């Protein structure tokens, strides 16, 4: 039997991350960097690699920049073992600049130029798919894809990376919604986390997970409320951990694990991704993730 195929549709950008002893002040001398990494940015690209490492087959659809950074992102995805035949080059690459230092983290973003709208061949992109991952970076195409996937009984897992005019429609078209505490508070600003879960469920998905960083995660599936305690981790860089959670949750779901175990496995994978500069190089293996989850079994 073939492993399940996870398809991620979105716009793939690039992250340039540096590790330094301290953040430079205004007009200060340049600070030395101890390490530098240029990788695909968090979003569906990182989520797909997490799903791949946990035993799924993966396919990237959508777009990347028609420039050198876009080619770098495409090559990194292909070299990782992700099918990139449904990716199209258009516009210029979005780029995140991240400096991680002992006295904090500095992040800046260049959104790039999306270029002309490119329609995806959804039948080809989703052929044989067991699940679809979306992140809000291509709202029009992701909505089309989500509707196509649901019509073919392919679960849609939406990790909210960007809140914009089309986010509510994407939530309504999704089966599972994953959001950080900050994003959840923007989408459902009233009350406690349990109230926010209820409001988000009312928007259309059958399950919702709110990730809480060092406090773990909380989720709701139907009437069941699930709390997942955090896993201990040596934290170097937390950037992109949510995308690792997204892909790992999809892999767990396709392994037919119960909802609380999907949350636990995803939290373990995200925790392990904090150990190095950026989630791409720190992506944990299936064996490492399962070993960490077993520590809770005694």
Topology:
Elements: E1 5-12, E2 14-20, E3 35-40, H1 44-53, E4 57-64, H2 68-80, E5 83-89, E6 95-101, E7 104-110, H3 122-125, E8 131-134, H4 139-151, E9 156-159, H5 167-172, E10 176-180, H6 181-187, H7 193-201, E11 207-211, E12 217-221, E13 224-228, H8 241-254, H9 259-272, H10 279-282, H11 286-294
Q: What does this protein look like?
A:
This protein has about 300 residues and is α/β, with parallel strands linked by helices. It is built from 11 helices and 13 strands. The strands form 2 sheets. A 9-stranded mixed sheet has the order 5-4-1-8-9-10-11-12-13, with helices on both faces. A 4-stranded mixed sheet has the order 3-2-6-7. The chain has helices at about 45-55, 70-80, 120-125, 140-150, 165-170, 180-185, 195-200, 240-255, 260-270, 280, 285-295; strands at about 5-10, 15-20, 35-40, 55-65, 85-90, 95-100, 105-110, 130-135, 155-160, 175-180, 205-210, 215-220, 225-230. It is about 35% helix and about 25% strand. Helix 2 (about 70-80) links the parallel strand 4 and strand 5 (about 85-90). Helix 6 packs across helix 7 (about 195-200), helix 8 (about 240-255) packs antiparallel against helix 9 (about 260-270) and helix 9 packs across helix 11 (about 285-295). The chain has a domain at about 5-10 and about 40-65 and about 120-295: 3-Layer(aba) Sandwich (UDP-N-acetylmuramoyl-L-alanine:D-glutamate ligase). It starts with a strand and ends with a helix.
